[in-house]
Amino acid sequence: MIKNGFIMNNETQIKVGPPLWLLAELTYDCPLHCPYCSNPTELGDTKDELNTEQWLDVFTQARAMGAVQLGFSGGEPLLRKDLEEMVKHSRELGFYTNLITSGIGLTEKRIAKLKVAGLDHIQISFQGADPEMNDIIAGRGNAFEQKFKMAQSVKAQGYPMVLNFVISKQNISQVEDIMRLSCQLNADYVELATAQYYGWAYDNRDHLLPSQQQLIDAEKIVNEFRDKQQGKGPQFIFVTPDYFEVRPKACMNGWGSTFLTIAPDGSALPCHSAKMLPLKFPNVKDKSISDIWQQDFSFNRFRGDSWMPQPCQSCDEKEKDFGGCRCQAFMMTGDMDKTDPVCSKSPDHHLIQEAIERAKNPKNPLLERVNKRSIKDADIVQIKL
Amino acid sequence: MINQSVPPSLNAMFRLQWEQAQDCYVLLFPEGMVKLNGSAGEIMQLVDGQNKIADIINILNKKFPDAGDLTDDVHEFLIAAYDKKWLYYE
Ligand code: SF4
Ligand code: SF4
């Protein structure tokens, strides 16, 4: 039940703040084929995508509610020809605008046009430290060269730049080279992020998940490198997979607390992978953002703690991690209401241990992300890494 | 660090803006936001590459005559802000 922006649970009252972070997934279309992609494996149809006017309206509504960070993402957002128009509109509204791109499709000219439109920051993802590694993971030739050139241009044109390296079993041994590359490119922040196992990445987990030893080695290299930096150069952020933790991550800072994702077709989600859950999510074509955020059943479903099962319900850490990730609980146990199996207190924790074991000897073939409505046998490509 | 002879400038990585919904000044940067408290907001507003530290103190002392001398507060904040790389002297 909701009263004046307060959700009334039986025993708890939670004030719903604004969706500070709005992620606009403009399209699921993408020129790359990364096996770690966290997009849903059912990619939907591009003709259901929101049009320009609908997106502009989403930004206006969300800004009026107090949203301040706006990420243009996908798929590859550069495939939208109206990107500049969206940047301009949202920048005028006062958003801090972030472009999250693979770098494919960028040109010096487009970087300049986006700057004029008011874009604040560009994040480019890389798949490895050199063309060989990068392009085999990305599933496209010359991808590295293109990214490298565009990263140089982004900095030359005065943007803050974040580089994002998705770390997996395949490229984790390159971590030092990756850090050197980031210095060479003059990045401001660098995310060394082990893949999150959703979407395509979940199906490919056995091929991606590094071993604990690999992670320990990599972390040591990262720390040594940081010590030598003496406060200069890029700020490196190393994100380890939660599979090796004993407590889950605080999922999205709490379900429906900060993050709002709008999928290409207008579905509103509390996180970019929530669509897999057996919940009916609202669509911005039918409802206002404020109704969605404050009143929709799906957004209220995991707010507060009255939904929590044991051991979370009586756990004194529930304010810290909110019982962990709902998608992870669902993917691994089939029940979205369960404690995240990453937690060592979860009765399902053994599932994580088993997944780590299986990743030592992957049996199923590696799937390349394909941009079709669903995967057919013929689309399954086995790539050797 | 603090530099009396060169005016401090806002690091290009950050954007300073008044946020109605937060009722305060915020610093925005790639995928993040820092909320500034009242006095931090007043000081950061004056970090524009024009005002030297003495100017900032003067302006604030005039604006808040009842607050007493703000020299120490401004210095303390600017040192912290420099460490966080919000500003630079050039
Ligand atoms: S039992 Fe639940 S609330 Fe407690 S630490 Fe584990 S996941 Fe978090
Ligand atoms: S449940 Fe949470 S962290 Fe997990 S994938 Fe969904 S919102 Fe993200």
TrEMBL record, chain B:
Keywords: PQQ biosynthesis. Pathway: Cofactor biosynthesis; pyrroloquinoline quinone biosynthesis. InterPro entries: PQQD, PqqD_bac, PqqD_sf. One of its GO terms (biological process) is pyrroloquinoline quinone biosynthetic process. Pfam families: PqqD (PF05402). The keyword Lipid metabolism does not apply. Signal peptide: none annotated. One of its GO terms (molecular function) is quinone binding. Transmembrane segments: none annotated. Belongs to the PqqD family. Functions as a PqqA binding protein and presents PqqA to PqqE, in the pyrroloquinoline quinone (PQQ) biosynthetic pathway. Monomer. Interacts with PqqE. This is PqqA binding protein. It comes from Colwellia demingiae. The gene is pqqD.
